[in-house]
């Protein structure tokens, strides 16, 4: 059975549960609009789906997913910046209270970046290397797990380079969180920005 | 109770289920790496989480989420293109079999775009308007629901402008799907590329 | 991994979800007591768990489970009548609005009964045969699937032999439902008491 | 919306998930028959559904549910003994490896029993009092929570009065567990038969 057929069948279960069996939550979200408290920046990796990892319900998480869960630096140059646009919309329009950047171990994008630093480049890739290169200064010749933590540290710094983020944080309206998921151990860590260390929270 | 605390508690349930109660699936994904069959491009909207909508399991969906579920046109210019990087990685490295672009009704990004076409612009937004402007040619002064279908049609055309997508599709290795979710009705439609019409599938 | 260890791990996920992540429902049930609308009489069979079959939440179903989902006839003789005690408590104390008796295909208890009618008895069983014998008059030498429908018809008749059930039903406070689950097809049928036929409802 | 309508809608989600999206588990159970490792004797209380409490999947738990999760003493007298019949079938035919008797705090049946010991009887109840009276010798004028633990101790003793249970346990084929669920705290305890004390396991 192909996964796409499983997904269509899964949609039937979604509708049965959220529209027919317990329609209150979705009806309220359709009528009243979304009011998520959290913007989550996560990786596209199929193994770290935020709604599964956190048992979320519809309406709880406004989610950006890109390769390696990267936040680029503030650069209002008129180009297409998908992650920055979502960030802006979440903070300025939806007025989320928390931004979580969720990185993880065993990240393919980070491994590609580490390989590139060793000149083990993939010469015919047009997009993944420019994309990961935004983290080139943050990562050295190191273990991928450590590199993924370094990219998370840089993403948090980049996040704070957006004036609307830092201002909201300074005023106490917004909290910034760096979370790192150890996929092998099933453990969740948070970045302590004061000393740059990761502390296990679960 | 704050949503972020709910998410930490939800992570405990995830670990209890996927690492302790039924560890087979995740163990296999950690050992063997991810092998998703599907790349899904979805919207960041908190109400249309793909894993919830399709009752997905870890490992099934490689997911990009950005505002309005947009696919930009092919532009290998060395800039940061998050969605294109994910697309490249999914098709060329993970060798997915299906790409689904999932748009939906009541999309805030599309509403902003429609407002902008009427000169009801939000003057101090630096990112969301450049981002949505990639769809400016696809959308007119129209109902937001219709506009979200027009952006989906354009995303599918953009998707096919990537040589590695179109080549894989031509060779029969890759299928491209445009899906549209009617949030009010709980109905799922697919785009028929031949005539541009949407056909209800669920 | 033994199932009992899976169950302990599963309990951890239950607590994480229902006590930590979304405690409102259980807190209300603990404070306010249970107020189920439905008494469900179901089979002990591990494949037909009512909460799984109907995606129930805590507090929704008051459940009796015995071999073959049988309701015995009214017999207030002072003996231990577990099913009758639950029935009495549900109707008179909890004041449920609906009683569902849920039988199913491929029922081991019914197969034992059919075998016994053919003198293929299991001579050293002390309890299962007396228990199933309450249905001896309802079942002949027939297909087990048909026999399970015959036992359901008899259970519904037995249910109506309880004065407090029939009185509440006559007054319109209580509805009696016979449901039959076709395990192979995944289909749900209801008994039409007027003509004794089963009508597919799902 | 009535709960019975929610249950029919819930059945649609069950079928979509277990028959259409991920049919492997149920197909195997239909083809190969049930092979549960565990017999669980639980209470009918709507708040302590075993499949929800332990996040069970179809096929994992063979379940008896009666008021107060009682196991009667061994009495092969030819009467209808629903719980004993299920016990016999689970041990002798299904050959379960574990029997769990799961009692809980805030049990209405136990409260009725305690009330009866204080002569606060409910004079017109024909079944619940005979049923609970099987525990009369085990319970005194005490707190209901303590009384529910006393009934569990007695159920375990009764369980061991069945020769086929005790013999299988003596031979090491079968394990007997008394579990007690503290509904207010969300905690799970097990009975240590050696000293009669309850030890928290979760």
From TrEMBL, chains A, B, C, D:
Its cofactor is Zn(2+). Keywords: Lyase, Metal-binding, Zinc. One of its GO terms (molecular function) is carbonate dehydratase activity. Its EC number is 4.2.1.1. Pfam families: Pro_CA (PF00484). GO terms for biological process: carbon utilization. It comes from the Bacteria. The keyword Metal-binding applies. It catalyses: hydrogencarbonate + H(+) = CO2 + H2O. The keyword Metal-binding applies. Zn(2+) binds at residues 43, 45, 104, 107. Belongs to the beta-class carbonic anhydrase family. This is carbonic anhydrase. It comes from Insolitispirillum peregrinum.
